[in-house]
Design goal:
An eight-stranded mixed beta sheet has the order 3-2-1-10-5-6-7-9, covered by helices on one side. The protein has three helices and ten strands, in the order αβββββαββββαβ. By secondary structure, the protein is an alpha/beta fold. It is globular.
Length: 193
Protein backbone atom coordinates (compact mmCIF):
# COMPACT_ATOMS: atom_id res chain seq x y z
CA UNK A 1 0.00 0.00 0.00
CA UNK A 2 2.92 2.38 0.65
CA UNK A 3 4.15 1.79 -2.93
CA UNK A 4 0.76 2.80 -4.35
CA UNK A 5 0.74 6.00 -2.32
CA UNK A 6 4.29 6.88 -3.56
CA UNK A 7 3.28 6.24 -7.18
CA UNK A 8 0.17 8.33 -6.72
CA UNK A 9 2.20 11.22 -5.34
CA UNK A 10 4.67 10.98 -8.20
CA UNK A 11 1.87 10.86 -10.72
CA UNK A 12 0.20 13.84 -9.11
CA UNK A 13 3.42 15.88 -9.11
CA UNK A 14 4.21 14.98 -12.73
CA UNK A 15 0.69 15.88 -13.81
CA UNK A 16 0.82 19.21 -11.98
CA UNK A 17 4.17 20.06 -13.59
CA UNK A 18 2.82 19.21 -17.04
CA UNK A 19 -0.28 21.30 -16.43
CA UNK A 20 1.78 24.30 -15.33
CA UNK A 21 4.03 24.03 -18.39
CA UNK A 22 1.13 23.83 -20.86
CA UNK A 23 0.46 27.59 -21.21
CA UNK A 24 4.08 28.37 -22.10
CA UNK A 25 4.22 25.49 -24.57
CA UNK A 26 1.02 26.73 -26.20
CA UNK A 27 2.38 30.30 -26.37
CA UNK A 28 5.52 29.03 -28.05
CA UNK A 29 3.40 27.23 -30.65
CA UNK A 30 1.48 30.42 -31.43
CA UNK A 31 4.64 32.33 -32.43
CA UNK A 32 4.00 33.92 -35.82
CA UNK A 33 7.67 34.58 -36.45
CA UNK A 34 7.08 38.32 -36.41
CA UNK A 35 9.85 40.13 -34.50
CA UNK A 36 7.34 42.33 -32.68
CA UNK A 37 5.49 39.32 -31.20
CA UNK A 38 5.80 39.95 -27.44
CA UNK A 39 4.55 36.47 -26.47
CA UNK A 40 7.79 34.70 -27.36
CA UNK A 41 11.26 35.85 -26.36
CA UNK A 42 14.24 33.78 -27.41
CA UNK A 43 17.96 34.37 -26.82
CA UNK A 44 18.41 35.23 -30.48
CA UNK A 45 15.93 38.09 -30.06
CA UNK A 46 18.73 40.22 -28.64
CA UNK A 47 20.38 40.23 -32.09
CA UNK A 48 18.69 43.07 -33.93
CA UNK A 49 19.12 42.56 -37.66
CA UNK A 50 19.89 45.93 -39.21
CA UNK A 51 19.38 46.84 -42.86
CA UNK A 52 22.58 48.18 -44.38
CA UNK A 53 20.67 50.75 -46.48
CA UNK A 54 19.72 52.55 -43.24
CA UNK A 55 23.40 53.32 -42.62
CA UNK A 56 25.21 53.41 -46.00
CA UNK A 57 24.51 54.61 -49.54
CA UNK A 58 26.06 51.58 -51.27
CA UNK A 59 27.62 48.22 -50.46
CA UNK A 60 30.95 49.07 -52.10
CA UNK A 61 33.57 46.46 -51.10
CA UNK A 62 31.30 45.36 -48.24
CA UNK A 63 29.96 46.61 -44.95
CA UNK A 64 30.52 45.78 -41.28
CA UNK A 65 27.94 47.08 -38.82
CA UNK A 66 28.70 46.47 -35.15
CA UNK A 67 25.92 47.13 -32.64
CA UNK A 68 27.39 47.65 -29.16
CA UNK A 69 23.98 47.45 -27.47
CA UNK A 70 23.00 44.05 -28.84
CA UNK A 71 26.64 42.89 -29.00
CA UNK A 72 26.36 41.67 -32.57
CA UNK A 73 28.36 42.30 -35.72
CA UNK A 74 26.79 42.03 -39.16
CA UNK A 75 28.91 41.65 -42.26
CA UNK A 76 27.67 42.11 -45.80
CA UNK A 77 29.89 41.11 -48.70
CA UNK A 78 29.99 43.20 -51.91
CA UNK A 79 27.38 40.86 -53.42
CA UNK A 80 24.98 41.38 -50.50
CA UNK A 81 25.44 38.14 -48.54
CA UNK A 82 25.03 38.87 -44.82
CA UNK A 83 26.24 36.99 -41.75
CA UNK A 84 25.83 37.89 -38.08
CA UNK A 85 28.28 37.19 -35.23
CA UNK A 86 28.15 37.64 -31.44
CA UNK A 87 30.78 40.05 -30.09
CA UNK A 88 32.39 41.47 -27.01
CA UNK A 89 32.11 45.23 -26.67
CA UNK A 90 33.85 47.96 -24.64
CA UNK A 91 33.49 47.91 -20.85
CA UNK A 92 32.03 51.41 -20.70
CA UNK A 93 30.53 54.02 -23.00
CA UNK A 94 33.61 56.18 -22.40
CA UNK A 95 35.74 53.51 -24.08
CA UNK A 96 33.31 53.12 -26.98
CA UNK A 97 33.86 55.04 -30.17
CA UNK A 98 30.84 55.18 -32.46
CA UNK A 99 30.52 56.29 -36.04
CA UNK A 100 31.91 55.57 -39.49
CA UNK A 101 35.35 54.17 -40.23
CA UNK A 102 36.83 51.53 -42.54
CA UNK A 103 39.19 48.56 -42.58
CA UNK A 104 42.65 49.90 -43.44
CA UNK A 105 44.79 46.84 -42.66
CA UNK A 106 44.47 43.12 -41.89
CA UNK A 107 46.90 41.01 -39.85
CA UNK A 108 47.27 37.31 -39.10
CA UNK A 109 48.45 36.63 -35.52
CA UNK A 110 48.86 40.34 -34.75
CA UNK A 111 51.12 41.53 -31.98
CA UNK A 112 49.55 43.67 -29.27
CA UNK A 113 50.72 46.69 -27.30
CA UNK A 114 48.42 48.38 -24.79
CA UNK A 115 47.47 51.96 -25.59
CA UNK A 116 48.85 54.75 -23.38
CA UNK A 117 45.50 55.04 -21.55
CA UNK A 118 45.46 51.24 -20.97
CA UNK A 119 48.97 51.41 -19.50
CA UNK A 120 47.82 54.24 -17.24
CA UNK A 121 44.86 52.18 -15.98
CA UNK A 122 46.84 48.93 -15.82
CA UNK A 123 50.57 49.60 -15.34
CA UNK A 124 51.18 45.91 -14.59
CA UNK A 125 50.33 44.94 -18.19
CA UNK A 126 53.24 44.00 -20.48
CA UNK A 127 54.47 46.64 -22.93
CA UNK A 128 54.10 44.20 -25.86
CA UNK A 129 52.78 40.67 -26.52
CA UNK A 130 53.89 38.72 -29.60
CA UNK A 131 51.32 37.45 -32.07
CA UNK A 132 50.42 33.81 -31.46
CA UNK A 133 51.06 34.10 -27.71
CA UNK A 134 48.15 32.56 -25.77
CA UNK A 135 47.84 35.72 -23.63
CA UNK A 136 47.60 38.00 -26.68
CA UNK A 137 44.18 39.69 -26.45
CA UNK A 138 43.93 40.19 -30.24
CA UNK A 139 43.52 36.48 -30.96
CA UNK A 140 44.38 34.99 -34.33
CA UNK A 141 43.25 37.80 -36.68
CA UNK A 142 42.71 41.56 -36.54
CA UNK A 143 41.04 44.10 -38.79
CA UNK A 144 42.64 47.50 -38.20
CA UNK A 145 40.29 50.45 -38.51
CA UNK A 146 41.09 54.01 -39.62
CA UNK A 147 40.67 55.07 -35.98
CA UNK A 148 43.95 54.76 -34.07
CA UNK A 149 43.98 51.89 -31.53
CA UNK A 150 40.58 50.45 -32.62
CA UNK A 151 40.32 46.94 -33.98
CA UNK A 152 37.87 44.18 -34.77
CA UNK A 153 39.75 41.10 -33.63
CA UNK A 154 39.58 37.60 -32.23
CA UNK A 155 40.01 36.63 -28.62
CA UNK A 156 41.57 33.71 -26.77
CA UNK A 157 39.20 34.32 -23.85
CA UNK A 158 35.85 33.06 -25.12
CA UNK A 159 34.12 34.17 -21.89
CA UNK A 160 34.33 37.76 -23.18
CA UNK A 161 31.96 37.22 -26.11
CA UNK A 162 28.49 38.58 -25.42
CA UNK A 163 29.77 40.84 -22.64
CA UNK A 164 31.11 44.31 -21.98
CA UNK A 165 34.72 43.27 -21.63
CA UNK A 166 37.04 45.15 -23.97
CA UNK A 167 39.03 48.38 -23.72
CA UNK A 168 37.46 49.77 -26.90
CA UNK A 169 37.69 47.08 -29.56
CA UNK A 170 35.09 44.70 -30.93
CA UNK A 171 35.97 41.06 -30.24
CA UNK A 172 34.82 37.84 -31.91
CA UNK A 173 35.53 34.16 -31.34
CA UNK A 174 38.79 33.27 -33.12
CA UNK A 175 36.97 30.90 -35.51
CA UNK A 176 34.57 33.65 -36.49
CA UNK A 177 37.13 36.44 -36.94
CA UNK A 178 39.05 34.04 -39.19
CA UNK A 179 35.91 33.65 -41.32
CA UNK A 180 35.29 37.42 -41.39
CA UNK A 181 38.98 38.07 -42.12
CA UNK A 182 38.81 35.91 -45.27
CA UNK A 183 35.63 37.65 -46.49
CA UNK A 184 36.60 41.29 -45.73
CA UNK A 185 38.85 43.25 -48.10
CA UNK A 186 40.77 46.37 -47.07
CA UNK A 187 38.45 49.30 -47.75
CA UNK A 188 35.37 47.64 -46.27
CA UNK A 189 33.08 50.27 -44.74
CA UNK A 190 32.50 50.00 -40.98
CA UNK A 191 29.99 51.61 -38.66
CA UNK A 192 29.97 51.13 -34.90
CA UNK A 193 26.61 51.99 -33.33
Amino acid sequence: MNNNRAIDRRTLLASAAALLATPSILRAQVNTGVVSDPAVRRNISSFVAHVWEDHFDELGKGIILSDTNTRALQHWTADGEMRIYPTSVPLTDELTRRGYTEVVEKRVNPGWAPTPSMRERNPEWPAYVQGGDPINPLGTRALYLSWQYYRIHGTQDTRKIGRRSSNGCIGLYNEQIEEVYERVPVGTQVKII
